[in-house]
Amino acid sequence: MVMGTLIVINSGYGVKEIIENGQSSNEMRRDLAKEFSKLLREELTREEIVELIRRNINYRLQGFKGICASHDFLDANMTMDEAFENVFGYSPFEKGMDYETLELWNSSWKMAVNHELNEYNTL
Question: N or C: which end of the chain has fewer CB atoms below 10 A?
Fold first, then answer.
């Protein structure tokens, strides 16, 4: 299992500005989780998705709730960055991440994993 490290940079642009423009954090989390799930399902084979979900369920059953097996198949941080750019119009990797962006990133990832990467599910 590969674990990545994200560096938080206060760039002066991020989630706060999006929230101030009218979108709630719950909507943002749901939209990002759905897009991340959609992209993972496009990038991985059906067999890989089934195995990824199986591993994630197994991790949860063992009490490891913060682990996602997506890193076993690809650099999922890049997939989440692409999802972020698709949904919000900018890349946190390019602009940097403030605290709110990092929280949104992590909570959306968790939501996607907890819903078995189902982008059609009502999250």
Answer: N
Residues in the chain with pLDDT values less than 50: 1-13, 122-123
Distance CA(123)–CA(118), nearest Å, equals: 9
Give the Cα separation of 82 and 62 in Å (integer). Answer: 30
CA angle 104, 28, 52 (to 5 degrees): 65
Give the residue from 123, 111, 122, 117 showing the smallest Cα distance to 39: 117
What is the reported pLDDT for 31? Answer: 92
- Neighbouring residues of 109: CB distance < 8 A, sequence distance ≥ 6: 33, 36, 68, 80
What does DSSP assign to residue 106? H
Only one residue has tokens 């709630």, namely 24
